[in-house]
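Ticket 4471: requesting a sanity check on a complex prediction with 6-O-phosphoryl inosine monophosphate. Repro inputs:
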Amino acid sequence: MPVTVVVGTQWGDEGKAKVIDLLAANHSHVVRYQGGHNAGHTVVVGSQRYALQLVPSGVLYSQVTPVIGNGVVVDLPTLFAEIDTLQSRGVSCERLRVSTLAHLIFPWHQQQDAISESLRGDSRIGTTLKGIGPAYADKVKRIGLRAGDTRDRERFRTLVKERATQENAVFASLGEPLLDVDEVVERYDGFATRLAPHLADTVNLLHDALANGSSILLEGAQATFLDIDHGTYPFVTSSNPTAGGACAGSGLGPRDITRVVGIAKAYTTRVGSGPFPTELHGELADRIVEVGHEFGTVTGRRRRPGWLDLVMLRHAVRVNSLTDIALTKLDVLDDFDTIRVCVGYRLDGRILDAYPDDAEVLARVECVYEDLAGWHQPLRACRKESDLPTQARRLIDLVERSTGVPVSIVGVGPERDDCVVREVTR
Ligand code: GDP
Ligand code: IMO
Ligand code: MG
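Returned structure tokens:
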């Protein structure tokens, strides 16, 4: 039965959650497979706006089982705050399942994130300070605590105490404030009680669901160019948002996956530091930020804006095996005279034929643009392809021609129904 991966193709905030919410209507399980509460996923349904960090975006449908997969790092205070907010708004989270294999984030991870950013000074990454990198580092160092460790409460208390005490020794040597070990142990013991009904062997749960004919949606957070391997290292997150990460982070195998939808904003944004070839500054940049409401859902930071970059998108097609593309936020470009699209990179007078494997090179490339005329009319009411003005269709054509991948969904507004779903052969 079908398994669809939804993956960001830029530097995040492409509108993944909106597309997931749209596709979730036809799925029984929606699974987050990596990242943590660094993600900010916004879903708008009528007058209601939901900003999700850890709970999968399919939670708004009562037929969907939302699953936090083994590849996610889970911050329990955030998870329960999010559940409480959703339940207070009438969205039941009882069905939520959390993998016993998912690693937990603890207060020392957040403190380590802040210390490491301040030590980097001007070369800081601009992380969300949520402790994501340090939690994944502990996972790889094989000293992390997992959600399943909460099942044996005495052992869990001992492990939390040991880890907190070890981290305090390091903080003491750095002259940093110390954690109140007993307070942390008690607090996390309380979280363990709350987590118990949600804990599950999600790997077997998903395989059993597949065997019973269910369809599964795998929800990526962050994006291709924030990927620890394929992104603009070191200005990346500490997990694999790319489609390969969906297998590792859910326990489904590569041959289970039938569709990989890449989400691309009709322009580009980036939060935090790092190279950005099509970045804009000045009046044009301010206009995109204002019209597109480009401020981080999690940290409130202004997102850096730029034009759509097809060199990056072609690379995202390669590393994710994209079957189709959802081109979002096209309506943000409604009132521009000229819409620029980067179709190539030039370095020292030479055209590069592929996305460079060196962030230093990426920082130096000059973009080759194709300029398209704007459409000067609101797209928000468009629901079928023929509603879209010719100029907007030219942009879609350019994306398809340049990537060789069909554009299956076009976003024309933030709400669930604000989109054009196109008939494409994948
Ligand atoms: P995600 O992290 O990829 O899920 O994206 P975010 O939720 O962080 O940011 C995308 C923002 O754009 C949200 O505020 C969405 O409500 C909004 N959005 C999504 N798709 C569209 C669209 O097609 N048009 C407009 N105008 N807004 C959109
Ligand atoms: P969604 O899922 C945009 C960025 C941070 C920083 C870098 C590393 O909403 O698209 P981290 O805290 O992960 O160690 O920070 O990654 N970043 C995101 N940028 N959208 C996100 O998530 C992001 N999650 C992390 O700004 O540059
Ligand atoms: Mg986001």
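Notes from triage: The longest strand covers residues 338-347. Leaving this open until the requester confirms.
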